[in-house]
Structures are given as C-alpha cells and as structure tokens.
Amino acid sequence: MDTPFATPPAPPVRSRSDQLNHECLCVALDRDKLCAALQREWGDSESCTALLANRPHLFADAAMFVAHADLERMQATVAAVEAAVLLPGYRAAVLARATDIARHDFGPAGAFMGYDFHLGGDGPRLIEVNTNAGGAFLNATLAQAASGCCGADPGTAPAAFEGAVAAMFRAEWRAQRATGTLQRIAIVDDRPAEQYLFPEFLVAQRTLARAGIAAVVVDAAALTYRDERLLAEGVPVDLVYNRLVDFALEAPEHAALRDAYRDGAVVVTPNPHVHALYADKRNLVQLSDPVQLRQWGLAPEHLAGIAQIPHTLAVTDHNADALWDNRKHLFFKPAGGYGGRAVYRGDKVTRGVWSTIRKGGYVAQTLAMPGERLVRVDGAATARKADLRVYTYRGEVLLTAARLYQGQTTNFRTPGGGFAPVFVV
C-alpha cells in the first residue's frame, strides 16, 4: 500500500569503538599511579604534584577507543609514506625547494617520527607528519597508569618501549658513524626548562641513563663548537636529540649546532634533511597525489595507504580565488608550521587573514574532521575533539597515543583534554 511518507533512513551503525567513545564516560587514568611512575623517573616526590598543578590539562582522564581495523589502516598509511620518501622522483621534488643545509644527508632517518591522524566517520586521515613529535616518553608513562574501562582492556603498555628507544638512538648513531660507541646525548631545545613538555625531557634523560647512555638537557644557545667537537657544558656530545622548531637551524643562537651538523661533527636527529623529506607541509601535495606517485614508481600495494591522505594543494595566486570560494571545505597550513600555529579552518578565515594566506607559503588541505570523544567535565558529559599520533622509527610503530582538545588544534589548555591512552577494540 502506498504511503504519503518516505521511510526514514536507518541510523548509521556505529562501530564498537565509536560507541565507546560516545557512551563510555568512565575514568581510565589512575593519577596516583601516574604520579608514582613519574616520581620513579624523577626521584622527586614533589615533581608530579607541581607538574599537574602547572599543567592541569596535560593528561586526560579518558582513554580513546580505536578499532583494530583503523589502526591497521594507519599503519598502512605510514608504510606508504615511508615507501614514497624513498622514491628518487619524490626526493628530487621536495629537496629542490629545501634549504641548502637540508640537502646534507648524513644517514640518520629521524627519531620519533610522528604521524598525526584524524579519525572521522570515513576512517583515519593523515593530516600531517612531524619530525620532532613530542610526547612519546610521557605517553609511555601514561600507559602504565591506564586501567580498564567499560569492558575494554588497555592491554599492556609497550613493554619494549625503552629498549626500542635505546636501539633507535644507537641506530641513528650507526647510520652516520662507522666506528665508536654512542656514549652521550644532548636533549636540545630553546630554553628547555620553559617548555611545556619540559617534564618529558627529564623522563627521556632517565630512560636513556637506564640504557647506559648519558644524557643532558641543554639550551641550544649554550652549545659550543670547537676543534670539530660539539660541546654541552664543556663536554663533547656524540648525538643531539633535536627538539628545536628552527627546522633549518637558521637562528643566530643555533650557530654552534648548525656548524657542527653541517660539518658532520655530530649526529643530529631529527635533522634538517629529515624535516625536508617528511614534515614540510608542501610535501603533502606530492603525498596526496596518487597519479604522480604512481609515475614515480610507488608500488600498487601502497596506493590504498596514500588514499588516506586528504588532497592538498599549494596556495598560489593562480588558484587563490577558487580556494577562497571553496574554503569551507578546506584547512590552511603554513608550509613550515608546527604546533598548530597560524593554521586556519576555512570557514573561520577572515578577509584579512586570507590576504596573508594567498600571498603564498601555505597549503590548502581538504578538511578531515577529527574524531570525537565524550568526557565528563564538572560532572557533565562534554564532547572533545580527538586526534591520534603514531610514533614511529623507520616505519615501525613505537607507540600510539591520542590527544583530546577543543578548538582548531591541540592546545593542552582544554578541561577534560590532554594526552590520552589508546585502547584498541
């Protein structure tokens, strides 16, 4: 019999992980266990109290649930990017626009590569690659303090994480040095004690010490270079774990590190060459172009992984008008950006901001919506955006973590937000 009303469409079927992210409000983080773990690292019972007081949104109470199939898709995308970076055509294209110092290749592959994904309704989408991805050491500690939630088991924190980290730094050393032993690492940033993730530097220092590698946390401006040796606190350094966001080492205060790197006098990881190959946002133009990658020789088995990268274009005067007209479906990022600085969701872009973007130096990426996690804030269920960071070394996954936030980008300023453990279901 005819009916005057159309049959309403069936509601979308949610995956188990999506159901948990929207319905499970239990607390996965045991903050007492977290403090105990951090205190073991620092040997200071007051440190954790001060950390959480000064950084109340560094760690989220909730966990992020991720489907095993989505994790496999993310790993396929990582493998696809790693394969693309080896292609001579790709390397020639991206290094042609790199700085002179970034063309120096001494062998290291880059410690703690960070692949950042948004996990929306259409599966994981790789939004960017970072070569100085922070948070791995803190997330490894966080995993130790996670407890089961809504019937999901966090499993075990990567028990091999510390061993993998030590092996990674030794591999970076061997990639550049034919002889000798890695004995001393400098963990380098600008004014490290003032950095929001400074506690991580301390955890890294203790982790390396347990592996028999001495480590010192040092301001890049305090390094000196003489007699073909880079010195930290007057003592020679074998390797620099580089956390600077001056990716080409151009700042005057980084002259000692720049000169030592250029001369091959110290192993630097990650370094300007690795950043140019992976993390310049303009690389997403090539990495999201399957036709070009196929012409360069990317194997067919990697094309599905490349399909998880949103289509990206460089903003030019030629395409600026069309991009403006389509801006609500785009996200704009500076080529050398980091930490969510100067990035703009298209529907938030004003005419004034657009006048800066259209001058160049930006890429336009098809908008990939972040995942969503419902958390309890002041007793009320509250939605938070979520992204996933996969930490890798030479394509091998070291750790996977989530970041919960509100606003355009991750900011560690959101109640209910911060680093969150990942539960695979």
Would you give an account of this structure?
- There is one protein chain.
- This protein has 425 residues and is an alpha+beta fold.
- The protein has 2 domains: 20-303 and 369-424, no CATH class; 311-366, 2-Layer Sandwich (Dna Ligase, domain 1).
- The protein is built from 15 helices and 18 strands.
- The chain has helices at residues 16-23, 31-42, 47-54, 68-85, 88-95, 136-144, 161-176, 198-210, 255-262, 272-278, 283-287, 290-296, 303-306, 320-325, 351-357, and strands at 64-66, 113-120, 123-130, 184-189, 214-219, 224-226, 229-232, 235-236, 239-242, 267-269, 312-314, 330-334, 344-345, 362-366, 371-377, 380-393, 396-405, 418-424.
- The strands form 4 sheets. Strands 1, 2, 3, 15, 16, 17 and 18 form a 7-stranded mixed β-sheet that branches.
- Helix 8 links the parallel strand 4 and strand 5.
- Residues 1-8 have low confidence and may be disordered.
List keywords for this structure.
globular; 425 residues; 15 helices; alpha+beta; disordered N terminus; 2 domains; four-stranded parallel sheet; Dna Ligase, domain 1
Task: Describe the structure concisely for a colleague.
With 425 residues, the protein is an alpha+beta fold.
